[in-house]
């Protein structure tokens, strides 16, 4: 059991690290208006979903269609796709476009709080003290990372604030909705079909959008977002749900802003401050708290 938990922790940390890296790449593309947010969302969903299904089919063959043979589970897949997968990606890109990646991330990080509150309501139990402590430390650390300790830096355009909050709600739905599907099917199958189905409404946008001049940087950036920031990141994140509870998995999304900050410092040469160092340590502390042995009950 402990080994499975360690595997789950590795999966969610790796997935969220890739998310953080792709967020920085997406901001670079969106800031320069090299790609529209709707087009980028459709492209990443379509190609990442297709690649996951091909990967699965190479080993499992015709069972790639198995999820569609059970109408009830197929309906759950549609719900997961259009209430979790699609909005969690599109609203995050819109929040980046109208604001920036760090502020979009801190708003999206409201999702662990929503997950803990939802599970507490469903199970009619108070959240464990360690969960409340962890989310408090992680939120404080995220705040320090993206504001440098100054509240005024969170001043956002109304649309950035709106889409960031919607991203937080949809990210919570993304974590909670696929539980039953993941219990019966390979994560590649669930994520692959959810992405491919979710890309369908973006078909006209992908076909009709006339993009600015494409160069190696743009193509490489989009490829990174599709493969690392979407296919692998979402797959690893959902696979972690097979070893961890949703509240813990949601908590580790704090590694996304941590990664974005570290990359900004190391890649772009932005100087790091004491507040940012403290914020990073707070986020890492939540990982240590969540890695501690625990009871199966939500209650403390």
TrEMBL record:
<dbReference type="InterPro" id="IPR050638">
    <property type="entry name" value="AA-Vitamin_Transporters"/>
</dbReference>
<feature type="domain" description="EamA">
    <location>
        <begin position="12"/>
        <end position="146"/>
    </location>
</feature>
<dbReference type="InterPro" id="IPR037185">
    <property type="entry name" value="EmrE-like"/>
</dbReference>
<feature type="transmembrane region" description="Helical">
    <location>
        <begin position="104"/>
        <end position="123"/>
    </location>
</feature>
<feature type="transmembrane region" description="Helical">
    <location>
        <begin position="12"/>
        <end position="30"/>
    </location>
</feature>
<dbReference type="GO" id="GO:0016020">
    <property type="term" value="C:membrane"/>
</dbReference>
<feature type="transmembrane region" description="Helical">
    <location>
        <begin position="155"/>
        <end position="177"/>
    </location>
</feature>
<feature type="domain" description="EamA">
    <location>
        <begin position="160"/>
        <end position="289"/>
    </location>
</feature>
<keyword id="KW-0472">Membrane</keyword>
<feature type="transmembrane region" description="Helical">
    <location>
        <begin position="213"/>
        <end position="237"/>
    </location>
</feature>
<dbReference type="InterPro" id="IPR000620">
    <property type="entry name" value="EamA_dom"/>
</dbReference>
<comment type="similarity">
    <text>Belongs to the EamA transporter family.</text>
</comment>
<keyword id="KW-0812">Transmembrane</keyword>
<protein>
    <submittedName>
        <fullName>Drug metabolite transporter (DMT) superfamily permease</fullName>
    </submittedName>
</protein>
<dbReference type="Pfam" id="PF00892">
    <property type="entry name" value="EamA"/>
</dbReference>
<feature type="transmembrane region" description="Helical">
    <location>
        <begin position="189"/>
        <end position="207"/>
    </location>
</feature>
<keyword id="KW-1133">Transmembrane helix</keyword>
<feature type="transmembrane region" description="Helical">
    <location>
        <begin position="130"/>
        <end position="149"/>
    </location>
</feature>
<feature type="transmembrane region" description="Helical">
    <location>
        <begin position="36"/>
        <end position="56"/>
    </location>
</feature>
<feature type="transmembrane region" description="Helical">
    <location>
        <begin position="77"/>
        <end position="98"/>
    </location>
</feature>
């Amino acid at each position: 059991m402990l080994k499975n938990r360690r595997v789950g922790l590795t999966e969610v940390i790796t997935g969220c690290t890739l998310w953080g890296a792709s967020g920085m790449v997406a901001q670079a593309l969106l800031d320069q208006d090299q790609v529209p947010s709707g087009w980028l969302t459709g492209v990443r969903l379509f190609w990442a979903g297709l690649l996951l299904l091909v990967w699965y089919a190479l080993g499992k063959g015709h069972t790639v269609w198995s999820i569609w043979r059970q109408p009830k589970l197929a309906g759950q897949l549609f719900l997961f796709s259009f209430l979790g997968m699609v909005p969690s990606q599109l609203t995050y890109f819109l929040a980046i476009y109208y604001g920036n990646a760090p502020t979009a991330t801190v708003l999206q990080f409201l999702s662990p709080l929503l997950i803990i509150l939802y599970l507490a309501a469903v199970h009619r139990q108070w959240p464990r003290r360690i969960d409340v402590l962890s989310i408090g430390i992680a939120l404080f650390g995220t705040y320090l990372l993206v504001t440098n300790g100054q509240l005024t830096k969170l001043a956002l355009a109304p649309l950035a604030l709106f889409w960031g909050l919607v991203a937080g709600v949809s990210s919570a739905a993304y974590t909670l909705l696929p539980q039953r599907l993941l219990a019966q099917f390979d994560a590649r199958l669930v994520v692959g079909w959810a992405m491919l189905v979710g890309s369908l409404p973006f078909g006209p946008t992908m076909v009709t959008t006339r993009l600015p001049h494409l160069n190696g940087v743009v193509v490489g950036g989009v490829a990174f977002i599709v493969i690392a920031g979407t296919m692998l990141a979402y797959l690893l994140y959902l696979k972690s749900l097979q070893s961890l509870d949703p509240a813990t998995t949601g908590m580790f999304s704090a590694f996304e802003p941590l990664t974005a900050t570290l990359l900004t410092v190391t890649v772009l040469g932005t100087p790091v401050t004491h507040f940012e160092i403290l914020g990073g340590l707070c986020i890492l502390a939540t990982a240590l708290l969540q890695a501690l042995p625990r009871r199966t009950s939500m209650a403390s």
